[in-house]
Inverse folding.
DNA sequence: AAACTGACCTTAT
DNA sequence: GATAAGGCCAGTT
């Protein structure tokens, strides 16, 4: 189905998230131009399993850095394990140093 | 076509 | 500072 034009935008950005970095739904929505569609970003993630290649949805968290979407994974602890596997410290389902690991879609060229 | 849902964010109390 | 409600956009039923 090629009606996923909006979803593809979200998937494309999430796939470009660097290793050991996380981003927020609002940041992606803002980059897409639809800042108010922050909920849509998460909605698209719900269908991330239908998209290919699969997107690292575990790198996408809410504004608080809380793993709100962990329940959408096969196992709630899977998302936390994946983030910890990337060097991200998780505490109480929340990303530690969230500001430190926070990555913005337009921050690709900001890095050397 | 209308109403409901949703892995959110902002503002108000 | 924490909790409650509203607003926003797109998709699904």
């Amino acid at each position: 189905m090629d009606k996923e034009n909006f979803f593809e935008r979200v998937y494309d950005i999430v796939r470009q998230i660097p290793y050991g970095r996380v981003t927020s739904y609002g940041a992606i929505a803002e980059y897409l131009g639809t800042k108010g569609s922050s909920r849509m970003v998460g909605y698209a993630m719900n269908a991330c399993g239908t998209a290919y290649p699969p997107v690292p949805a575990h790198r996408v968290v809410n504004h608080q850095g809380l793993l709100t979407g962990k329940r959408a994974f096969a196992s709630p602890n899977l998302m936390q394990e994946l983030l910890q596997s990337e060097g991200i410290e998780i505490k109480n389902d929340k990303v530690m140093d969230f500001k430190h690991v926070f990555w913005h879609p337009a921050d690709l060229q900001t890095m050397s």
User: Anything to note?
Assistant: The mean pLDDT of chain A is 89.
